[in-house]
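Please check this today:
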Amino acid sequence: MNTEILKKILFYIDEHIYEKISLLELAEVAGYSPFYFSKLFAEIMGMPITGYIRIRKLQYALCSLLEGKKVLDVSIMYAFDSHEGFTRSFTQLFGSTPSTVRKYLASYSVPEWVVPDTESRRMSMGLDRNTLFDNMHQIVFEVLRASLEEVKAGYCTEISITLLQDGRIKIADNGRGIPLSRDQYMNKAVLDKILAGHPISNLEYAGMGDFSQCSLQTVNSLCESLQVNVYRNGMWFQQDYVRGIAQHDVICKELDHVSGTEMILKPDMQIFGETAFSIDVIQGWIADNIDDSIKVVVT
């Protein structure tokens, strides 16, 4: 399947996103038998055609939810068989229910479809194990860069990094802490600006390729779960995210604790698989980027 035919197929899917799209009609558009078309599409895009259509429909559906449409209406609009089936598929892809997404997601735009570069009918989309390993560690390094900003400002003297069970990692510093307060409206504004992201599917990630630096919003989007704990002015603030989406209002409690910010995150296994963090890689980055005067504990 050449690039022009694939572009035609991807465009056709978006143009008919509100309809039930069959393998037979797509094969006819491409000019192949259904079996051969399905085989070629999976080789090039890295997933079955049915999986691709499902992701695109759910991405568009997310936008419709944020426009204020009801869940039932959205499920019908995008030709899902039932409200329950739509909710189940939506939650599996984005990690949160439609109602949670509509309440806490700041914004979302349907990503442009990408025709991957191919070689011998195989993907060349930056999803090899080495790239996944490197990019997963870039998530940690970006969080550490945020702590280093506190160091440069003269408010942080200690950073701790702890590898936890189930592929999670905890990064904490004794800086000023993210500027949160008892005001929920202001907290949402602050966290939306600094940390809130949006779900990134493995399809969208494949189009991102390698990255040496990314924002905290991107970090959050690429995490299956991320919990942020902020200690500031005698208060403890907590927010939990799933694939970039806040799961509740910020929890605020009085607590006598050293000021600082703590993030406990788990990279998205749908993207990174079972890849584990390496203490050696993390310590190597610390040696190259953090001055010896700053206490850094890695366990």
Q: What stands out?
A: The first strand starts at residue 118 and ends at 119.
